[in-house]
């Protein structure tokens, strides 16, 4: 099964890759594209269906207004033109998980078209032209039974759940992307990642790639370096993580290069991405049997968004994530590296919210990235699922600022918050975490430390004040960390006369 | 020269997923040929500058609010299924991935 | 009391309100009639005696309790088997849906139930409404009560035959190219195709979505109008439904005044290919309208000659896609599932076994018309012709209020006569098709018997979009004037059916 591949450097020395990316996004509408069934993920099979999304004889679709609004939002955010009048079309092909054996989609009249966006890779900005964004519906989900590991091949039969059938999808299609070969895969990844952020910011999708709510098909072809003629392309389906997008594009470049370098021809076909082995395998060949016989959907009337509506939606759009990020970085004074860590750690939004509550950006970053993201990572949770929000972070920082907690104790408070032990105050009480601010208790501890470490005192007295650090450590240990180290130093210095 | 050949009819049957027998092909191909000759008359109409009509009436923007309505129960959904298993529609093995 | 099955819906309502008959009695009388004559007529595919009597009893109880009931409450009706009725077998005349019981009601069915109308059962039809004779039904042909050796028309032959056989006073049909009006004409009954979007298609098993229209069938104009009012009106479940009040059809049917009405005779719908007896009755009816005060002129609709070819591109194209859902996966027939055959193979085998010849012909024709390389020449061009036909209508309605023509070129033909000549069969719908392409309203009203064969002739009236009431104005005027001439309604001249049981 495994095809010959060239090393990526060798491949790029001879060929320039040309890409096109098709991203399918499931919208987070309450109801489906054409009926009132719920869209919740993970519901028991066939509990979210009706005559419409099951394709029962006689049933008819009605367009979800919010899905149209979301489509327009996405189109505007990608700098597209919004159609003044467009129709749905039927894409006819047979497949068991498609209830009507046609997909209600859009064909030559997409709701949004001719847009562009930008991605940044290694400090370089690349412009990506958007061909179109159109509305369509998702299919049901098949489980293949009786074969090895649920694969379609070797299965004895399949079981179909139509809960997903009819969930609104927006398909976003780029024009051909031609960037320096060594950047292609990274640009592809950055594009999908940028789309995710954009869709989240727009609030139109949950963008849970693990649940398939954002799926990418990557078209890749090669042309000999310097040539103007495009090669034959393949379409790699269902590449469902950022990293996979990068890997799949790289793999196709190296595979196609090997085919061409050995004098072969790239076959125009659909290919399947295998996450586990990191390769693509041949799916079906694009043949004349694939004649979708598109025609205008007679059961739905045209969508003609008024210019007033479009402008109203435009004015409600949030700031574009890329622009906003640049602005925030400047406001916060973070370095490029710090900002990248924040973004990659999914901590941008929590930090924004925490800063809004009066915390300095640096402190907010310290807790979200240093403490909470680490804890989330260790327990394999999403950051926003930890149970600690911007309000708690702000409260803890207020206690630090007031001198009631130091950083070390604050970490324990966060630990308590994550474990659901109550409010910061309750956790401090329960765990006995408050800083000791009573000077007499500290002075007693200092006296004990001096008495227990005559050698250290000797060193200090003989002109090595730095040795006092060991005494501070001893005091802090005695106080079980619940002392403000700066205060201890101040009192100790006074005692030792330095 | 027929307007549609037997081979083309066989191809259409594959596209339409109908397993036609040879006898049916023999019967249907000439009938389709006649019908296509009849319907081909539309090409006699000079209509280059005429807009096409896909819908009987010129309605636009018919949409519904994004609200949930009661679904069928799984029992109702599966009530017509030729075969069901684990609350899902049981279908024969599928040859090709979508 | 005289035979309840001979009454109109209006008369039945009077009997119920005056306490002379109950809905149960009326329903039972019709069930008995079905048992007596349907072996020879074969109008019904399924008779729901139990459900009908239960519905009737419920209406009687409501009436006894003094509840305010609609004008058709308790009146029985025959439902074309193309509309879903929850829990009642619905086949659309096809083997591929044999035994399917829908889990939901069509909007029309919901409204029938809400109006208290008693649904007797489901009537025979050409498979998926593809045909003009009911000979394409997978369950056998329906026979015309006027002559059992002849077809009753189609696709809604079962509904119209049920009326003509006195098995029901009301029926529902659906009209895609004439499937209400042509059987109405062939059986001497009234058949109305409302404005497209005037009646909901939700729950109507689609043939051609942009053409299909459910509508009322009855033996009198007023009965049809009452049924029209009961089922029509905006439905948010159908995106192509018109959000406007229902035209005042009942009032029009009661008044029936054509004084000053401008009537246009369509020049292109007559002449060669039209049976002389049909043309004679048609022209007499036009004369009669003139006498009644209508202003009659001749009108030309030059693109109507292309309506038939355009229709036979648009319909099969939409149908090929609409019928793709019948694939043996979720409901209906499944053939060849032996544990070895793939889903793809099972789909192919099921569709081969489950669809009849005409359905296959049209699916393949539509598949062809939509194929890459043919789309522009066929489907695209047909849509342009559709525009031209709409313009013909628009131009005509600048001069006249309604257009008229014979409903069909001939009277009912013998069973088997055109069964394997699709083109001859298609030509049945020459007069009725243009309206479906344009979306406006039309109806067929009985206007006499052709001299050659003593079979009913239909008078076809075409009104502008959402002016459905004009149909009833013309129909009612003709009906009363003709009844006066004949000394009774046309149906009174129908031969008595032999009671077989």
TrEMBL record, chain A:
Q: Which SMART domains match?
A: GatB_Yqey
Coiled-coil parts of chain: none
Among its keywords, does the record have Transferase?
Answer: yes
Against Gene3D superfamilies, the record matches this protein to:
1.10.10.410
Q: What is its EC number?
A: 6.3.5.-
A GO biological process held by the record: glutaminyl-tRNAGln biosynthesis via transamidation
Q: Which residues cross the membrane?
A: none
Q: Describe the task this protein carries out.
A: Allows the formation of correctly charged Asn-tRNA(Asn) or Gln-tRNA(Gln) through the transamidation of misacylated Asp-tRNA(Asn) or Glu-tRNA(Gln) in organisms which lack either or both of asparaginyl-tRNA or glutaminyl-tRNA synthetases. The reaction takes place in the presence of glutamine and ATP through an activated phospho-Asp-tRNA(Asn) or phospho-Glu-tRNA(Gln).
| PANTHER family xref list | GLUTAMYL-TRNA GLN AMIDOTRANSFERASE SUBUNIT B MITOCHONDRIAL AND PROKARYOTIC PET112-RELATED (PTHR11659), GLUTAMYL-TRNA(GLN) AMIDOTRANSFERASE SUBUNIT B, MITOCHONDRIAL (PTHR11659:SF0)
Assembly with partners or alone = Heterotrimer of A, B and C subunits.
Which protein, by its recorded name, is this? Aspartyl/glutamyl-tRNA(Asn/Gln) amidotransferase subunit B
> Native species of this protein?
Kribbella antiqua
Q: Which gene encodes it?
A: gatB
From TrEMBL, chain B:
Whom does it interact with, and what assembly results? Heterotrimer of A, B and C subunits.
Q: What protein name applies here? A: Aspartyl/glutamyl-tRNA(Asn/Gln) amidotransferase subunit C
Keyword annotations: ATP-binding, Ligase, Nucleotide-binding, Protein biosynthesis, Transferase
> Which residues does the annotated region (Disordered) include?
75-98
Give the EC number.
Answer: 6.3.5.-
Record-linked SUPFAM superfamilies: Glu-tRNAGln amidotransferase C subunit
Query: What functional role does this protein have?
Result: Allows the formation of correctly charged Asn-tRNA(Asn) or Gln-tRNA(Gln) through the transamidation of misacylated Asp-tRNA(Asn) or Glu-tRNA(Gln) in organisms which lack either or both of asparaginyl-tRNA or glutaminyl-tRNA synthetases. The reaction takes place in the presence of glutamine and ATP through an activated phospho-Asp-tRNA(Asn) or phospho-Glu-tRNA(Gln).
UniProtKB/TrEMBL annotation, chain C:
Looking at the record, the residues that make up the Amidase domain are 25-471
Q: What GO terms in the biological process aspect are recorded for it?
A: translation
**The EC number(s) this enzyme carries:** 6.3.5.7
Q: Which UniProt keywords are present, listed alphabetically?
A: ATP-binding, Ligase, Nucleotide-binding, Protein biosynthesis, Transferase
Q: Which reaction does it catalyse?
A: L-glutamyl-tRNA(Gln) + L-glutamine + ATP + H2O = L-glutaminyl-tRNA(Gln) + L-glutamate + ADP + phosphate + H(+)
Q: List, in alphabetical order, the Gene Ontology terms for molecular function in this entry.
A: ATP binding; glutaminyl-tRNA synthase (glutamine-hydrolyzing) activity; transferase activity
Q: What's any one GO cellular component for it?
A: glutamyl-tRNA(Gln) amidotransferase complex
The catalytic residues are 80, 155, 179
**InterPro entries the UniProt entry points to:** Amidase (IPR000120), Amidase_CS (IPR020556), Amidase_dom (IPR023631), AS_sf (IPR036928), GatA (IPR004412)
Q: Which family does it belong to?
A: Belongs to the amidase family. GatA subfamily.
Instruction: Please name the PANTHER family in this protein's record.
Output: GLUTAMYL-TRNA(GLN) AMIDOTRANSFERASE SUBUNIT A, TRANSAMIDASE
Q: How does it assemble?
A: Heterotrimer of A, B and C subunits.
What function does this protein fulfil?
Allows the formation of correctly charged Gln-tRNA(Gln) through the transamidation of misacylated Glu-tRNA(Gln) in organisms which lack glutaminyl-tRNA synthetase. The reaction takes place in the presence of glutamine and ATP through an activated gamma-phospho-Glu-tRNA(Gln).
Q: What is this protein called?
A: Glutamyl-tRNA(Gln) amidotransferase subunit A
What is the native source organism of this protein?
Answer: Kribbella antiqua
